[in-house]
């Protein structure tokens, strides 16, 4: 799949063919742009690198801040003032924009630092980014897990230069700039420098080497060179006193001459940054090609874990890119915690847990379970040191952990790992922190009053108790299992008599978007609505069956337009994530045909090739992971170790889930088309045995085998009698294993 990846998908405003059928009735309230970037990345790596324009939110591209509708334009074309590191992937306004250590290749005086050049002849593939600036300088960048290598090809010039700005960070939008609190940098030897900036409490160190031995090496401050200076130190930097500063190499070039810059990064000081550079890139010089090749090899290994059979090169590109976007974040940085001295797992850029816990983390667990175990231990270490699990976690110190967006989301991830029995996690230790975390923030209201507002947190916390009971059962703590059962049942307190969530405030949506979450006791949830019929009728209304087409928000939509749109109480069409699991709620009411129809229209109409090929923010791979699962004909019920089965979008597919891959094969398959009819499951066999139930257990999926799905043009009785699991208490809870 490596050669089919297009890292430019999602970098521009949504540009999809006009929707038809159900898809035409879905309303998109959030920014219509993927917010991805095409920069060089490494699977779950700490470092990324890309052209920098200061645009929202990754630093790459053309757009200004956007929170709904079409993104406003900041630049009318692709421009860059240099190349930066540590970009987000697909997120929105998380108020942390990175983009540190900007490298600017120049043929002009230092006074011109900060000007932008046109970005021409862009190329990108996993682990590699290249572009030619309007100045005629060609830039190529590749990265390792904690390192970056730049290669610049210059035209003939008497005084070419490479400038690294240590002071710049964030974006060129209001309130998007990052000002370092402290900074230290200095020359170590000819062609070698090091330094550290402290940004939002996190010390980020760099060791950098330049392989132009005859160039001058100088520090600079406020765009003035410091000949002979070897060190700059800044303490207590204020926004009003900050002046740009950094270092520079300069000298004559012949046409086609190349210069390499090698960066080693660390959150634990310059010595570890140096060690990282040597370990990942060797002693130099001329390490660009070897580092690029090794990164490409790792990407090929990861992207080969999913293979699909399709005659459409466009669909293969969408799938390959979705898988690629699913493997970029979070950043796993072993032995790099700047906040506590112990070695071990550390993670950051866990910026949208409320988006990724349902799709991305289960995909990570399926494809690279050892990295999921590493992430789990990183989360446990954070809880150990800071007192609670994060809802989001950045390369920053502070209590801003996005608690408004969700509660107890790490619990779903941990419950799935525990149920699978993956080695490497101390579940007694995990249980302590899972239990303690449930009593924090909104958890106190939940315990005292039976529910918490925003009301969606009541569902989060109740399910968190259910997931924690899974772990309590594994370690044999029957007392906790019995205690958590009644607390997990409090999800019912979130619902009103009409079968929808009670009136409350909601994060990025309304009560309809949050009302169809796949809870642990869906049988009781459906009964609360009045049974299968009323529940399906409510879902039909939500998904727009029989509704008129809608008009999407345009540029800078007004309050009246947004109010009218939200009043539709309509599915958001994966423009946003709160209702991304709702299409599968039909399966709990015996209507897998409805799931097939909705998912078909999402898959075929809401994703495409090209820079505008995503319907909304990719959110650290949460959106792309949805596409990967849905097209495979599977969907994870996060925290419940269950995978729902639906009609796949590929004739055949293979998932590398361990010792034995899972092959998904079909009979009666017809290549699906946008606006065309859906296909429906008629029969399913797993390793030759009939599978009447519409789901796989986690153990079955991770064991691999052959899943044969017979498809047809009309709904069948398959999946209408046997429902997915539904239980107030986890199956097997209390049984020591």
From TrEMBL:
InterPro entries: 6-hairpin_glycosidase_sf, GH-type_carb-bd, GH92_N, Glyco_hydro_92, PNGase. Residues 5-167 form the Glycosyl hydrolase family 92 N-terminal domain. It comes from the Bacteria. Residues 713-737 are annotated as: Disordered. It holds the Pfam family Glyco_hydro_92N. One of its GO terms (molecular function) is carbohydrate binding. Residues 272-712 form the Glycosyl hydrolase family domain. One of its GO terms (biological process) is carbohydrate metabolic process. Coiled coil: none annotated. GO terms for cellular component: cytosol. This is Putative alpha-1,2-mannosidase. It comes from Cellulomonas oligotrophica.
